[in-house]
Amino acid sequence: MTTILVTGGTGTLGRRVTERLRADGHEVRVLSRHTQPYAVDLRVGGSGLDAALAGVQTVVHCASSPRGGDEEAAERLIAAAGQAGVGHLVYISIVGIDRVPLGYYKAKLAVERRIEASGLGWTVLRTTQFHDLLVTILGGLAKPPVMLVPAGVPDQPVEVREVADRLAELALAAPAGRVPDMGGPEVRTLDSLARAYLHATGRRRAVAQVPLFGRTYRAARAGGLLTPEQAVGKTTFEEYLGRRFEG
Question: What was the pLDDT predicted at 32?
């Protein structure tokens, strides 16, 4: 039986990775800021990290925050994992971090590079945006009477449970470096996804496409968030919406 540490193990992805690994009979430790016995904020460190890593063979690093601190957290985790003799570090990343110039994406790319240079056995999986994140964004955009979405931006949302299954599979295998990206089954425009969301939630809103400006918008519009050649996900956005909002 393998002992695995999942950082961010109470988050949207981390808790599903944890559930999957435990269902397969593995000992899984959950590290997060508030979950005992391994309550550690990787951004500031603490003695609890060494205890969490003791005897661990594999770390699945899901902890991340768009509010900053990912690079510092990764540096502390890598150093402690090396001291603990961890053999495999698995990292979840995002499709397009090398193409779309968001600050959060730059941090994710920097973490990838730290892991590659760490001297640990490592695996990195990049995926497209989760259905859950898209629903959160669309929920915010749907508050006004007219739903404004960026014009011409395509997306390729993927089911988080499928990503969790893939991460669990990678965690139980040998270090593989950068593995093929994982994208959802369909490339869709944001306005079509917005209309699907409105239909599923029973909201009546006009949808208007608004052209934006800047490098980030241009990169996203050019397909920077997509991996159409790796459309390996199975669950469509409508299927996810049906399960979430229609029971």
Answer: 92
